[in-house]
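Worked example 2:
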Amino acid sequence: MLTLPEKLFLLSLDDQKDLRYSVSWAVLSVSMAGALVMELALRGKIHIDGTQRITLIETTSCGDELLDDVLACLLKKNTERTMNHWVTMLLEKFSKLKIKERLLHNLSRKGILQREEKLFCGVVPYNRYSLGGRMMRDGIQRELQAVVEKTKAPDESSVMLLSLLQSCQLYNRVCHAPRSEVMIPRLRDNFESALANA
C-alpha cells in the first residue's frame, strides 16, 4: 500500500526512461510536505481542526521510517501550530531528511520504480530510476477519476490526494478541463470534511 506522498510522487512523474517531473521540484516539494503531514492525520497521529491547527494525538511509530522522522520533527516542537507552519518547517528540512531520495527508494523497494546503479564519469556512483510499469499509477488515476465522476464515494485519502494534485497543478492528470473547473469548488468542500474526519 502506498502512502499519500508516494502516490503524489508517482503521479508527478513523466513517462520517460529517465525520471522527470511534470512540474518543478520547487512546486512539488510544497505539496509533498503537505502530503507528509496529511498522511500523519490519516494514520491518527495528528488532528487538523477546522482552522488547520495541528494537534499531536499519538506518538508511536507509523511503521514507516520517513513518516516516523516527520513525526519526530513535529514532536520536537510539541506545540499547536498551523498546517502552513509545519509545511514550511518541513520544507526547510527536506535536504536533511532526504525526502526525495527516500521516496525514490521506497517506490523502488515496492517494485514500482526500477533502480539502476551508474557511474558518473566512470567514478562517482549514483542511482538512476525509471518507471517500472504504469499499472500502479494507472490504477491510482482510475480510482481518482471515479471519485471525480461520482461513480465512487470519496474517502479521506482520495480527497486529500486530489487536493494535493490541485495545489501543485497536477490535477489534469486525473480530471481534464473543462470538468476540472467545475470540480474544484466541490473538492474544497470535500477536503475540509476529510480533514475534520481524519
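The first helix runs from residue 4 to 11. The mean pLDDT is 82.
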